[in-house]
Specification:
Blueprint (H helix, E strand, L loop, with lengths): L4 E5 L3 H14 L9 E6 L1 H10 L7 E5 L15 H7 L1 E5 L2 E7 L4 E6 L2 E6 L5 E7 L2 E9 L1 E5 L7 H4 L11 E7 L10 E4 L4 E6 L6 E5 L2 E3 L2 E8 L5 E5 L5 H8 L3
Parallel strand pairs: 1-2, 2-3, 3-17
Antiparallel strand pairs: 4-17, 5-6, 5-16, 7-10, 7-14, 8-9, 8-13, 10-11, 11-12, 13-16, 14-15
Pfam families: NAD_kinase, NAD_kinase_C
GO biological process, one term: NAD+ metabolic process
InterPro entries: ATP-NAD_kinase_N, ATP-NAD_kinase_PpnK-typ_C, NAD/diacylglycerol_kinase_sf, NADK
Length: 253
Amino acid sequence: MSLRIAFCASRAPIAQAALAGLTRRYGDHAEQGADVIVALGGDGFMLQTLHRTQENAAPVYGMNRGTVGFLMNEYSEHGLVERLQSAEEAVINPLGMRAICADGSEHRALAINEVSLLRQGPQAAKLQISVDSKVRMPELICDGALLATPAGSTAYNYSAHGPILPIGADVLALTAVAAFRPRRWRGALLPKAAEVRFDVLEADKRPVMAEADSNAVRDVVQVHIRSEPSIAHRVLFDPGHGLEERLIREQFV
């Protein structure tokens, strides 16, 4: 049985050239009704595609035509149907962010990789961290902090010296960014079902922004984060190069 493939690509010339070649070879179906969506670009474009198509039942298979491709497969025009038919599937649940700003406004967003809080100005942020309504850290002085999913644990979280999490692990990584006090705090592993709340202390003097997969909200005073198990992103990988294997391999480089 032939696959109905829907292609999409970033604006980068190399991705647009790949789009033209693949659609000539395999055709191009509308995303609604397609069996699989093939995204051409880097990890950033892959995240955009997953967010944009989250109501679509079709899984997404990425091919790297960008600078970063942790969520992507190797690019090739040849044998695409066979690769898609033998691909391994990983299911990713995003984080839901609810951010309350100093002006009282409320903003919601989803994050496949992480939700991060970052200082807006020259002074370090002061954050209070609660888990399931219990204050766990009364005061963290830092450049920021983030909560990462297993899928996002090799991104900003890893750069901030957070742990890499196996894709099947029902845990989240809470990681500090350049912690000043307590200086030696390196973060925590939390159950996937936990709800994390950040309260911004001295918000007028030390303004903070929140970001969910590049969706930024400025001047936040409180941020609530929890996993959204009702939303499931289906991502396809070539056999032997799945997300679980990549996460394990990344820890030995």
